[in-house]
Specification:
By secondary structure, this protein is an alpha/beta fold. It folds into two domains: 191 residues, Alpha-Beta Complex (Quinone Oxidoreductase, Chain A, domain 1); 141 residues, NAD(P)-binding Rossmann-like Domain (Rossmann fold, 3-Layer(aba) Sandwich). Helices cover 30% and strands 24% of the residues.
């Protein structure tokens, strides 16, 4: 027996997760790293897996937004050592494929094999489990994961804020800075102000946008967006959002719009909000079978762009530290993105809070 620890087991779609004590296999293959997680965010992508909207099978451990400490490492190329502080990368990268060599490690074609190619968790009945997203399994106290799914960070940064960079912050801030490339003085509309949407708002503020419009049905999330940098908010149950955005932009529409929910209807809404010559950036992930319809002629005649972004188009090894530096300087507010703190035994309460919609992270 190498290590015993608790983990939250995802055993069936839409059924409560089970907190159970497991044993963990030691790192054995080259590049494997034993990590003790110190904090994890609970992300909507975990909810999508649990609900069956993302095709990850039960019999696994969820959680992909984690920060912790290296316990041991086996023949790593990255030089990770015991005691190093790390953030998990839910889209691991091999560093060698076409996409990694092209500066697009966020769509590494070996990511699934790297992330889900090991089953280090053992139940008392002898069955084995894997980490569902990136192999990270941050809803466990400890894990063994490939070094391609870890980034070393400074050891003076709090884990409860560092973990958010592992997914929501990088996806949102990166969407604004890396994918859409929001420009100073521009107008921005953000549809959906959960954790990722709040990060888009902050990324737009960091980029120097002049007008930042937060669109969300939830009053608490609109208030949070105002605190984090939105200049205007709109409740789409009260005001028609396209008209609202046009009213703030001399009838043109926003320079940049972001869809951060993941539905075809809202993707189309983001397109309609964008001005001619503007860009609609799609961050949310709809069901894999979903399709969206756009007016083909007007895409051309109005020179609008639709930008897809995965993981904020981030180079995680550089951008994680970049975003930590933003936070240290006060440009990126992570403290106010932490809405609630729970223990590993409260995982189902955490999911309930996320479904009810008032929490950011």
């Amino acid at each position: 027996m190498y290590a015993r620890m608790k983990a939250c087991l995802f055993l069936a779609n839409n059924e409560p997760m089970v907190v159970e004590e497991l044993t963990l296999d030691p790192p054995s293959a080259p590049g494997e790293v034993h990590v003790k997680w110190a904090a994890t965010g609970v992300c909507h992508s975990d909810l999508s897996v649990w609900e069956g909207k993302l095709p990850v099978p039960p019999g696994s451990i969820l959680g992909h937004e984690g920060a912790g400490v290296v316990v041991s490492a086996n023949e790593t190329k990255s030089g990770l050592q015991p005691g190093d502080h790390v953030i998990g990368v839910f889209q691991p990268s091999c560093g060698e494929c076409f996409y990694c060599r092209s500066g697009q490690a966020y769509i590494c074609d070996q990511a699934l094999a790297i992330g889900m190619g090991r089953t280090p968790f053992n139940r008392s009945d002898g069955s084995k489990l894997f980490g569902a997203l990136g192999g990270l399994a941050t809803f466990s106290e400890e894990t063994v994961v490939h070094e391609g799914a870890l980034v070393k960070i400074p050891d003076d940064f709090p884990f409860e804020e560092a973990c958010l960079i592992g997914c929501g912050v990088t996806t949102g801030v990166g969407a604004a800075l890396n994918a859409a490339k929001v420009t100073p003085g521009s107008s921005v509309a953000v549809i959906g102000c959960g954790g990722v949407g709040q990060a888009v708002v902050q990324g737009a503020r960091i980029a120097g946008a002049e007008t930042i419009i937060a669109v969300d049905l939830n009053e608490a999330k609109r208030a949070a967006a105002t605190k984090l940098g939105a200049t205007h908010t709109v409740d789409p149950s009260v005001d028609e959002p396209v008209g609202f955005v046009h009213g703030l932009t001399d009838g043109r529409g926003a320079d940049f719009t972001f869809e951060v929910v993941g539905t075809p209807e809202l993707q189309r809404l983001s397109y309609d909000m964008a001005r001619p010559g503007g860009a609609a950036c799609w961050v949310g992930v709809p069901a894999l079978s979903a399709e969206v319809t756009l007016p083909g002629a007007m895409v051309t005649l109005q020179a609008k762009s639709v930008i897809g972004t995965m993981y904020g188009n981030a180079n995680c090894k550089d951008d994680f530290v970049r975003f930590i530096n933003y936070a240290k300087k006060g440009d990126l507010n992570l403290t106010d993105m932490v809405s609630q703190k729970l223990t590993i035994d409260d995982i189902n309460e955490a999911f309930t809070a996320m479904v009810e919609g008032d929490v950011i992270r």
